[in-house]
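Here is a complete protein record:
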Amino acid sequence: MSDAMSRIYLDFNASTPLAPEVRAAMAQMLEEPYGNPSSSHWAGTPARQAVEDARAKVARLLGCKQSEVVFTSGGSEANNHALKGVFYAAGRRGAHIITTQVEHPAIINPCRFLEKLGASVTYLPVDGYGCVDPDDVRKALRPESVLVSVMHANNEVGTIQPISEISRHLRGTGILLHTDAAQSVGKIESKVEVLGVDLLSVAGHKLYGPKGVGALYIREGVFLEPLIHGAGHESGRRAGTENVLLNAALGVACEVAAKWIGMEPVRILRDYFWERLQSVFGEIVVMLGHPTERLPNTLNVCFAGRNGAEILSRMPRVAASTGSACHSGSVELSPVLEAMKVSPEIGMGAIRFSLGRGTTQEEIEAVVEYLIQAADR
């Protein structure tokens, strides 16, 4: 068996390969259409149609109107547009934003930036599962609050946040609700009406689309100051000539993802993986994240008294992620694990395994064997 064939990829929360249907669509788009989507002649019209067809496919997955989808360069831009767009549209210093301590840096860092501009930001704590209490959101509301931003599902531990319950607390307040759904779209149901959100971010490379493309759902009637100013592309919401190739690819990725909602075969394999680890390692292995309200593909486990980064370094054929970082011999927990109040003795041994559509039981068995050898050493 070649090295390439024996490599095992269990880092699908970090990025996914292109779905075959997406690859085929991109190959076709490389040939045509090549016109500018804003041009009304024979070369531009097919390009415009390709962009709008893609927009319709994204909208179907999210359960929204086609006109409510804005294409972006990825999840980070979508998050930045949501946060900064609301703040600038509010037009005043002191505008209050509520978020959580376990958000992705693409939320935390824009919030830190807005604080320099006069925004007030509340970073809510989470429980031991990494879940925010909707009542804490309600208690944090102020007269000057303009936005609540809570991720749909956590990228490290997979915990799904109670977005629809948070939404109920905001009804009638005029306060907007945004969710970073980069990890959830294509894995679990993410219909905007069910969630009750005004804004929702999508990242293409998390759902078997290409890197460099994403989308922001903006509920009809919600005004955001554009993040990128220029001509009137994307109905005046994002300037720049539309990326026909990547937009079309995202549309196909969303179309395919609709068939995978729930990821039941992956969830079954993920649970089998956890059972195998328990049977082999017993009390040494601890699972992080909510036991049931969790992404179906995500398993974050800690090997007590061991270093997760060192274990992974002994398994070079396995691609996975750790929840800690080593600096000069010391171990620093990620902000997510710190917010969950995971003890260093446990958290230092954290490894996130995130399974994908093509993960096999044979691969899981091989990883268990690798772990036995690596952890024993």
